[in-house]
Amino acid sequence: MTWKNILILILVLALFATSLWVLLPLESERFGREGIRLGLDLKGGIHMVYEADLSSIESGKEAEAIDSAIAVIKKRVDILGVTEPVIQKQGENRILVELPGVSEAEKAKNLIGETALLEFRERIINEDGEEEWIPTTATIDGEEKVLNSSYFRENTRVGHDPYEGIVLFFEWNEEGSKLSEEITRRLLHKPLGIFLSGEHLLGADGQPIAPIVEAVITTSGIITGLTESEAIELSKLLNAGIIPIPLNPIYEQTISPILGANFIDLSARAGVIGIILVMLFMIIYYRLPGLLASLALIFYGCLVLALFKLIPVTLTLAGLGGFILSVGLAVDANVLIFERMKEEFRTGRTLGAAVEAGFERAWTAIRDSNITTFIACIILYWLGSAIVQSAPVTSFAATLFIGVAVSMFTAIVVTRTFLRLFVGTPLAPKISLFSIYSGRK
User: Do 270 and 402 have their domain in common?
Assistant: First the structure.
């Protein structure tokens, strides 16, 4: 065995050890390990469809409004800490939202559908003698405008004031500063009510928040009376931006994670059984090369799953199908190589010559067949991400592409390296160990 082959073997073993380190434990809070990302059909979660009200949008700008709404929803979903959410346009005026692993449907729905618009209102006595809160306005450049959080800079933060307790700091943009200056000057020593999405914002004591204006406010201000958790959540919402159009939920489905767990268990069991049967066939039919191919198959499985965690790939049921299909293709490459080796043995070649010739002759067939698979995967991924926008389709394409790429590596490099270990050893002349063909015709 040459030094080159020894070096390759060391690299293969190092890669295998690294794959195991990345892969195991699959998921552990103690070691800070996250498991392989699972899609909605496996992990469970929430599937929601919103219909956008575009009646107030200028003609020709509907698509832009939908895109803006999707961008804001993505920022809000980040607050929930969801990995690999699906947020995409459906038809002309609908938005699909899929949140894997989220079980609190009501909280998620409120977070996504909330307009997150803080509006400042002043108190008046109407014609019936009753107290009423109306939007507070000011005239800027000849146009009357309502003071609200659309004039906030997206840098609100939560802090602690020694006198006021928990406070939410905000800053006005240039136009907001002008509005605030005019309004707070007019409402000095009067209450300024704060409303969230049309409802009076309530403090930690359950009472409406309506601070007395103590000074003219121009560049920044604070909101007091909130609990820390309420202030943090409101700050995140405000920094995520305002959804520019009303969204009406028209469909909602909570998918049980138990169903997903069953899918995973059944798929894992089927995968293990399938791999064991394939390995038995390879060992019985191809003998020692079949055993080495089985070891390479174990290496293949660990490396692919490690890549799924590192990239990361969101694994759906269709993605599992792509992974299992790639296992079959990995074995197929070894079959081509071993059949070529049998032909070389029939011509009377030694083990070393048969191994090298078998791999060289099989390479073109393996290369061409896998290139066509790569092309199909790229087209599927493009269709799934840009056209039909389907997570299962993209998951299938991604897992199959990665699996086939790794299968080429394991067949051409790993199995070949293992076979070269026996060249020049006492086992090399025993052709019956390396082929079902036991003699020369």
Answer: yes
